[in-house]
Amino acid sequence: MSIALGAITAICATFLAVGATIPEWFVVVGRWLPALVSLVVLRLVVLPGGLARWWALRPGGWRRLLGGCAVAVVALIAVYALSVLPIVAFGPAEPQPGSALAQVAILLIPTILVFSLSTFGEEVGWRGFLQQTLAEWGFWRASATIAGVWVAFHVPLHGAMAIQGTIDWLIAATSTIGLFPLGLFLSAAVLRFRSVWPAVFAHAVPLSALNLISNVDDLGPGTLWALTAITAVLLTAAAALLVRGRTRPAETDSENGVSAANLPR
């Protein structure tokens, strides 16, 4: 995936060189770079099973699809909510008012469906194609590698946006580092349900722990880093729960080719 990293770096560097602010649409479209790179690889190298297998597109039935997506989305939202609790209880953070949370809840499913058109491009590349390519490494080693690459993929974008003043440097740093444990969670969701779709929809959840706090601008660096650390611990724990159980030698799901190594039985 060095091609994807090089491409995003070159594009962001071009925006900085010409003095053009990175548009919001590029953040959405840029997520498709990993998918495009994996498409090129699949065109150049003939792999058994084709696109549906290597992108892990077959959900194994509607029941597995809906159940897996629901578990992944609810678990992620629960992690964010639990992460905020100690910051609100013992720190200066204030929760979002109930009216704001109710509005988010009403629009949650439609928003996830819309955002999934963008997150699909990342998930089939990282947690679909690359996850299967590294399956023999075992869950934690493979997922940590992919999460690290995913973080590196966002460094040029977040860095350029911080330089341009679109986002604060501290928010850029905490958000970028926070992608690592999120990547572990998304990989665990893919392996647990043997399909990329739970990760696609969980990634499309339109909020983070910060969005549950109403006075983010008033929080100091220590509080933001503490929130990032708490969220990281909970996301890693959630990933471990998703893949808990006895480990077995790497197997192949007969439906979509997703490695079943380290999956619960």
From TrEMBL:
Keyword set, alphabetical order: Hydrolase, Membrane, Metalloprotease, Protease, Transmembrane, Transmembrane helix
UniProt GO molecular function: metallopeptidase activity
Superkingdom field: Bacteria
Transmembrane segments: 35-56, 65-88, 100-117, 138-157, 169-189, 196-216, 222-243
Keyword Protease: yes
Record-annotated CAAX prenyl protease 2/Lysostaphin resistance protein A-like domain positions: 108-205
PANTHER family linked to this entry: PROTEASE (PTHR35797:SF1), PROTEASE-RELATED (PTHR35797)
Protein name: CPBP family intramembrane metalloprotease
Natural source organism: Occultella gossypii
Source species taxonomy: Bacteria, Bacillati, Actinomycetota, Actinomycetes, Micrococcales
